[in-house]
């Protein structure tokens, strides 16, 4: 989201019902992931186990420590993203009080403003023509009675309230809605910057790359060493069936 980008704002729209549901469900999903300790427990059990000893075991544990760091960084990023989205969700509900099913489009609001302004101009032309005709008839046919001269001011006021026809400021309904949407996007952008989840994700990505490099190095060195012992260890710890001729560190990878 880039609230300070005019092109972004021109393309933005807000579906109250869908956005509220998206934010709420995203926060719940991120919370579940960040609070899940199953992966941490499994890696901790692996690192503390004495069932697999030797040089190969130490190298494998080094690789798993990298995976554990990766998982923790990802959970930290998820926790930060959940906090960020929860704060944006609260701000959205507070600052965008339209009805639940409202769909607010910057582009549509601009078009509505143009259309209503055009309608107001056309109405004024018609009202002026009717007024001029009534005044003319009153001047030449007064002996036959009077003709009502229409007063269009109340209609003009309604157009002003709706689209700011005579006042293009932010006091009309459409302009107020546009400004509230823009203010909310700017406020949400500040929340996003405060949490800076991008940097956490970058950090997690770097940690993932480091752990992958360690995994590859360990796999290349020890694939042909201690296969039987390593396979037996995997069967005991993870209670899984692994063919005797297949040993891969990727078997315990997060991926």
How many helical elements? Answer: 9
* N- and C-termini, Cα separation: 29 Å
Kindly estimate the percentage of residues that lie in beta strands according to DSSP: under 5%
Q: What is the count of β-strands? A: 2
Share of helical residues: over 70%
Radius of gyration over C-alpha positions, nearest whole angstrom: 34 Å
Can you describe what's shown?
The chain has 255 residues and is mainly alpha-helical. Helix content is 73%, strand content 2%. The protein has 9 helices and 2 strands, in the order H-E-H-H-H-E-H-H-H-H-H. It has a two-stranded antiparallel ribbon with strand order 1-2. Helix 3 (38-48) runs antiparallel to helix 4 and helix 5 runs antiparallel to helix 6. The chain is rod-shaped. The two termini are 29 Å apart.
Question: What is the topology?
Answer:
Layout: H1 6-11, E1 13-15, H2 16-35, H3 38-48, H4 55-95, E2 103-105, H5 106-140, H6 153-163, H7 173-195, H8 197-222, H9 227-238
Antiparallel strand pairs: 1-2
Helix pairs in contact: 2-4, 3-4, 4-7, 4-8, 5-6, 5-7
